[in-house]
Amino acid sequence: MKLDSMHLDVLKELGNIGAGNAATSLSQLLNQRVDMSVPDVKLLKLRDVPYLLGGPEIPVIGITVLVEGDGEGQILLLFTKESSEKLVKNIVAGFPQNEINEEMKTSVLLEVGNIVSSTFLNALASFTNMKLLPTVPASASDMAGALLDTVLAIEATEDDTIITVITDFIVQGEMIEGYLVFIPNPVSLKKIFSSLGVNI
Amino acid sequence: MERVVVGIGEWSVLKLNGVLVCLGLGSCVGIALYDSTKKIGGLVHILLPIPQNSDNTNPTKFASTGIPFLLEEILRLGAGRQSIVAKIVGGSQMFSIKGREDKINIGARNVEVTRDTLKKLGIPIVGEDVGGNFGRTMEFFVSNGTVKVKAIGRGEKEI
């Protein structure tokens, strides 16, 4: 597959629409302003993917969903440990302190992953006219590299490069920072382009 | 001391001393081959078990092709075929999604094909830290063949 700057621009625009929707949903959930950056679309060598967020050994919380339907891929939301704690604290603020345990914190994060990835995908789906559905989310707390290599392996690319669409978002006033990484399966990427009438 | 980070789909060899490193292995597997008599070591960082597409140009992305490739490289450096042993690290399942286990659990398949490939080549596995649901960093010391494994919240161990 040969991608040029025009293809990357198309993906950037797609990512932008998705990220805008995701920011709105997160903002409604938190009742706070959420800013999302214009997505960074990169064609990366596989070896560089674990370095996306400052190094393979950085401890992070990751929430992932598989994308299914007319196209496949994966969405991975990443937060630093500190940001994930603040995020959860913010959402469960109204609950009695003694009811907040680890299990509840995890389900809150899974729900955030669910809402953000669903809204991201919905925007992509309506723009491309493809059916794109998220699976239930899964979470893990570990080294960034370990989560990212798993995502690469699941997409089972035989290519030596992969497209990543990355947006970082900031919850204003709370210093919560996170990243949304969208990795379309290379086969599905062709379908996305053809649905938009873009030659590849 | 030389310290070489071996990224996804990459390999490296060293003689006498130095450290070969794989950072943050999730479902990937790091395979260290070592000849202790000559102090020659090699490390390959594989992502997937077996290539599906025969014209793929990078053999060291896969267990089935990466291990024979690394073997050739350490033999070229002077390792004795009968002295070579292996240590393997990684192959975790980082996420679990009900009903999608087959798609997600590539770590287990990576380990399985790694074992099969080493067995076919007659290379014994003398140390391993594989599976589970957590990430690992491995450091392979070529001076004595020691492999240190680090995981978050689990400290460090030697295999």
Task: Give your account of this protein's structure.
The complex is a heterodimer of chains A (200) and B (159). Chain A has 200 residues and is of the alpha+beta class. Chain A is built from five helices and eight strands. In chain A, strands 1, 2, 3, 4, 5, 6, 7 and 8 form an eight-stranded antiparallel sheet that branches. In chain A, helix 1 packs across helix 3. Chain B is an alpha+beta fold. Chain B is built from three helices and ten strands. In chain B, the strands form two sheets. Chain B has a five-stranded mixed sheet, with no helix packed on it. The mean pLDDT of chain B is 95. Classes of the chains: A alpha+beta (200), B alpha+beta (159).
Average pLDDT of chain B, to the nearest integer? 95
What characteristic shape of chain A results from the CA principal axes?
Answer: globular
The low-confidence runs of chain A, each spanning 5 or more residues with pLDDT under 50, are none
Largest interface: A-B, 34 and 39 residues
The separation of the N and C termini of chain A measures 7 Å
Helix content of chain A: 40-55%
- Outline the low-pLDDT stretches of chain B: none
Number of beta strands of chain B: 10
Bin the strand percentage of chain A: 25-35%
The dominant shape of chain B is globular
Describe the strand arrangement of the main beta sheet of chain B, using strand numbers. 1-3-8-9-10
Query: How much helicity do the residues of chain B have?
Result: 10-25%
Q: DSSP helix count of chain B?
A: 3
Count of individual helical segments of chain A: 5
Distance linking N and C termini of chain B: 21 Å
User: Describe the biggest sheet of chain A?
Assistant: 8 strands, antiparallel
Rg on CA atoms of chain B, Å: 15 Å
The chain-level structural class of chain A is alpha+beta
What's the helix-strand series of chain A? HEEEEHHEEHEEH
Report the order of strands and helices of chain B.
EEEEEHEHHEEEE
